Amino acid sequence: MDLGLKDKVAIVSGASDGIGLVTARSLAREGARVVICARREAKLFEARDAIAKETGAEVLAIQCDVRRLDDVQRLVAQTVQKIGAIHILVNNAGSVPSIKFTDVSDAQWYEYLERKLMGYLRMAREVVPHMQRAGWGRIVNVAGTAGWEPSNTAMAVGLNNAAVMNWTKSMSLQYASDGILINTVAPGSIDTPRQVGNRQRESEVTGKSVEELRKARVKDIPLGRLGRPEEVANLITFLASDCSSYMTGTCVTIDGGVVRGI
Ligand SMILES: NC(=O)c1ccc[n+]([C@@H]2O[C@H](COP(=O)([O-])OP(=O)(O)OC[C@H]3O[C@@H](n4cnc5c(N)ncnc54)[C@H](OP(=O)(O)O)[C@@H]3O)[C@@H](O)[C@H]2O)c1
């Protein structure tokens, strides 16, 4: 299937590791011109070189913390200056910790919204005018199943993800007539460095081994394993492509069958 991604310009946030890195590689493989960003420059440049080596594509790496407006504006300006257009945004950078409700101050709640929702809004606001100019755009927002199914500890995670899903729908309505299609992807448990880190922290708190915790998590997944970042990247690549031409404002769950709601 030709996805029609050749020479499309795609920005992927949080692309030095995990789902973002694999998505950037997948888009590059399909012929897109990919711009990747993350906070740690050395790791970002490593990712750029690895993608370029594997795909033969030219990849632009720009250090950017999506919580900072000046960084986001610089990322977008440099992309347009060096490549001339923006067609695709994959909003993926964000990490929100598990919390104990009574320990979290007002200021920390605002900071948790900064970590995901605000970064996504900020990036979208800066790229939409370029998509309007091109008359074609795709935005894929990576949320998570805690947006559908709240949990006791993942309260701040769920709040961000639910907000991303709701905002995505509004955005899709607002920009449909410009040819900009905007969707959410909601992964379940995906085997990325973040998952490993989360299990290590959980192990320290509970005294259970990392392997024991991993097995307990997998037990609840009907497909019997964690997801692979490539599986999420495939879905994002499709939604970012010309082949996805009649889906907008929707949220696609990719969780090995965990969420029971239909
Ligand atoms: N893995 C899962 O099971 C899972 C499940 C549901 C949803 N998700 C969602 O999927 C997305 C990716 O998760 P992942 O597991 O692939 O994460 P990951 O392995 O921890 O990778 C995160 C990437 O984002 C970058 N990043 C983090 N904060 C950033 C910021 N403020 N500005 C720019 N870059 C930033 C990191 O690099 P630097 O640290 O150098 O910035 C890294 O490249 C997240 O939105 C996450 O909530 C993941």
Summary tags:
262 residues, alpha/beta, Rossmann fold, 2 domains, seven-stranded parallel β-sheet, 8 helices, 7 strands, globular, binds NADP nicotinamide-adenine-dinucleotide phosphate
Q: What is the CATH level 1 assignment of the largest domain?
A: Alpha Beta
Query: Helical region count?
Result: 8
Poorly predicted runs: none
Strands of the largest sheet, in order across it?
3-2-1-4-5-6-7
Main sheet overview: 7 strands, parallel
Question: Which architecture of the largest domain would the CATH scheme give at its second level?
Answer: 3-Layer(aba) Sandwich
Strand pairing plus helix content: what structural class? alpha/beta
What is the CATH homologous superfamily assignment of the largest domain?
NAD(P)-binding Rossmann-like Domain
The bound ligands are: NADP nicotinamide-adenine-dinucleotide phosphate
- The percent of residues in helical segments reads 40-55%
Categorize the overall geometry: globular
Mean pLDDT: 96
Give the CATH topology of the largest domain: Rossmann fold
Radius of gyration: 18 Å
Plain-language structure description:
There is one protein chain. With 262 residues, the protein is of the alpha/beta class. The protein has two domains: 9-189 and 229-254, 3-Layer(aba) Sandwich (Rossmann fold), CATH 3.40.50.720; 191-226. Helices cover 48% and strands 13% of the residues. It contains eight helices and seven strands, in the order βαβαβαβαβαβαααβ. The protein has helices spanning 18-29, 41-55, 69-83, 106-134, 155-175, 193-206, 210-219, 229-239; strands at 9-13, 33-37, 59-61, 88-91, 137-142, 180-187, 251-254. Strand 4 (88-91), helix 4 and strand 5 (137-142) form a beta-alpha-beta unit. Helix 1 runs parallel beside helix 2 and helix 3 (69-83) runs parallel beside helix 4 (106-134). The longest helix has 29 residues, at 106-134. It binds NADP nicotinamide-adenine-dinucleotide phosphate.
